[in-house]
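Collaborator request, handled under Task 6.
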Amino acid sequence: MHWSMGSSRAEKQEKNSIVHSFNRNFRKRADGNPNTMAFVTSPEMVAAIAISGKLDFNPIEDSLVNESGEEVKLAVPTGFELPLKGFDVEDNGYQAPAMDGSSVKVVVNPSSERLQLLSPFKPWGGNNISGMKLLIKAEGKCTTDHISMAGPWLRYRGHLDNISNNCLIGAINAFSGQANEVVNQLTGSKGEVPAVARAYKAAGVPSIVVGDHNYGEGSSREHAAMEPRHLGVIAVIVKSFARIHETNLKKQGMLGLTFDVESDYNKILEDDTFSFIDLDAFSANKPIHLELSHSNGEVEVIKLNHTFNEQQIEWFKAGSALNLISANI
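Structure tokens returned to the collaborator:
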């Protein structure tokens, strides 16, 4: 149940309040407006506030005026805490898969904006990856909502390419202090993060993301890993990871790496070019070294750690955990 003082104000980013009985109380989450405050309460309170049209309405003490002009109070809600007949249902919604699915075809309209069949990610070729560009160096808190915003974007969660247009649009660029604005190192112009990522991908230039502490905290949202992978990001290098997000990156065939020396975060410059120098010897319990080529001609190497085990390294080699599973069926 959901009530809003004016969700149509989202485009103008006017101050707004939403009271609902589901989801979370994040700014901007429900309607994309950073000035919308969201409050979570019971369905009964949402209904009472919606009927009154007042955020400060107290159904226990406050009255409403009916059609006859009389002051009335809302009755105290009554109901059953649990279903009288338990949770027994005739149709539990389960549909068993076909015994032989080899002839089953999943048909999706190619012009659909909300559904898209997934294509396998490209496997790693086994060589060092060089010539990488920085997509964004995120500063401060960067949660899964910063990486893959919810709200109006959730309608595209079945269409990876469309929902990737929200990739990292909430992350704060360490070089400018702005969100969703980075420099395209191929042109020198500024652009939105997804657009610059697509430009790198189209040019065959791999990219990396650099982050701060506890990168990827929040909901264990697969899209926060799938989107940068889809847009050509090879590695996410941070001071520290939220555990689940780190694993999600691995599953999608990306490198989740941490600075051996946290202050090396400061060595990452906006116009650097990056190359792995020993990725071809990728193995468990062995650090990886990254070469930073600065625009002034200076070159330095930093040490990166990882928590990949041998099985997870096979995910990376195959391009994703799903690729490896399908190859072994």
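The cover message to the collaborator said: "The first strand starts at residue 2 and ends at 4. The CA atoms of residues 198 and 231 lie 6 Å apart. Please let us know whether this matches your experimental observations."
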